[in-house]
């Protein structure tokens, strides 16, 4: 199955970076611009935050059902992040790539690197704000985490930034220019689609003889 997915015509984009970097808003804005892009909804055992919707934000699972799916090989990768389980459902990603759809996901940094091992052609994009202190400001402003939780997320952020060089791209989400970050992300997707190896010889021949 994995082999088929690797040969599938769809492209896989992985947006990662520390909690508070703006992954959710950025990917939402990109999806509004690129409606054919398929978004891989993750599963988690974390309780829903206000406004989060089952099946759109996450699949909210009990630890037991998460572990059952994991035991059946249903996840591409899983991660315990700050005491909760998170995982990328395998079949949605593989099926869409085979069908030719581009897929985007936003796991944590370890998850992104695990996805890269499964799909070496995936494009990995690291997102950072233009100041580290903005991470804390954003996490505080959204009022969904306790102070301890925020402190834990900031400590994890330093470990995550240490792994940024394993990624293919860096996007800086400037506080005063959010649309600029969406433009940059869109440019990366468009450029990836135009890499010469994405086109087979028959396409070049057809163009040559048209
Ligand atoms: P949050 O609780 O803020 O929604 O997510 C916490 C962290 O888990 C974020 O860094 C988020 O990107 C990451 N995350 C969300 N879904 C997945 C997933 O399926 N796999 C992994 N490895 N990380 C995930």
The gist of it:
The chain is an alpha/beta fold. Helix content is about 45%, strand content about 20%. The longest helix has 16 residues, at about 180-195.
Describe the structure.
- It is a single chain.
- Strand 5 (75-81) and strand 6 (84-89) form a beta hairpin.
- The strands form two sheets. The chain has a five-stranded parallel beta sheet, with helices on both faces. A four-stranded mixed beta sheet has the order 4-3-6-5.
- The longest helix is centred in the last third of the chain and has 16 residues, at 178-193.
- It has a single domain (12-193), classed as P-loop containing nucleotide triphosphate hydrolases (Rossmann fold, 3-Layer(aba) Sandwich).
- Helix content is 44%, strand content 19%.
- It is of the alpha/beta class and 210 residues long.
- It is built from nine helices and nine strands.
- Helix 2 crosses helix 8 and helix 6 (133-141) runs antiparallel to helix 7.
- Residues 1-7 have low confidence and may be disordered.
- The N and C termini lie far apart (36 Å).
- The protein is globular and about 65 Å long.
- Bound molecules: guanosine-5'-monophosphate.
- Residues 19, 23, 42, 46, 77, 79, 81, 86-88, 106-108, 110-111 line the site of guanosine-5'-monophosphate (5GP).
* CATH class descriptor name: Alpha Beta
The proportion of residues forming helix, as a percent range, comes to 40-55%
Order of helices and strands: HEHEEEHEEHEHEHHEHH
CATH architecture name: 3-Layer(aba) Sandwich
| Poorly predicted runs of 5 or more residues | 1-7
Q: Fill in the CATH topology.
A: Rossmann fold
Largest sheet: 5 strands, parallel
How many helix segments?
Answer: 9
* Outline type: globular
Number of strands: 9
